[in-house]
Amino acid sequence: MAFVLAPLGLEIWLWNRISVYAVHSRRYIQSQEFKPFVPPSPASLPKAAPPKTYHRTRRWTRRFLYLALGLGAAYEVDQHFLYASLTRSARTFWLGLLVATDYKINFRPHPPLADSIQALHDRNAERLFNLLRTNGGLYLKIGQAIAMQVLSQDLDK
Question: Which of 98, 117, 141, 148 has the most CB atoms less than 10 A away?
Fold first, then answer.
């Protein structure tokens, strides 16, 4: 089988590449006598370094604890001095988001997460009723006023 050689420059370049790989792939033989591994004695070891401290972890742990204490204190003040007004407002805001999202997703001819539009109205009416009953007080009176004047028969039930 005969090979047609390329111009002389390419041939020299290829030969240099092959010889570089051949040099790097040589195996070297140890010239020293084999000695099994023996662990060093404790006296020959250097002095131990101090343990590493994780300042960032400590900082975030401290921030988390401050946040937890602050939220706990705010909850206690809300329960004892503000008559749970912040809790009621948060509960109302959450239900508003939930109902708005539910209607946004399911208010179409064939709702994906409800059997029908009627089932969607019933489910949200039940949620609103539970919110008004849980919040109590003025929320019940507002719910009665809305039921008498504004809402459909589904929510009136």
Answer: 117
Query: Rounded distance, CA 125 to CA 143, Å?
Result: 11
Identity of residue 59: R
Q: How much is the pTM? A: 0.56
Alpha carbons 92 and 110: distance in angstroms, whole number: 28
Given a contact cutoff of 8 angstroms between Cβ atoms, the answer to whether 134 and 126 are in contact is no
Distances from the Cα of 74 to the Cα of 35, 66, 88, 96, 112, angstroms: 70, 12, 14, 23, 40
Note the pLDDT of residue 26: 59
Q: Which pair of tokens denotes residue 43?
A: 């006296």
Name the phi and psi angles at 39, rounded to 5. -65, 150
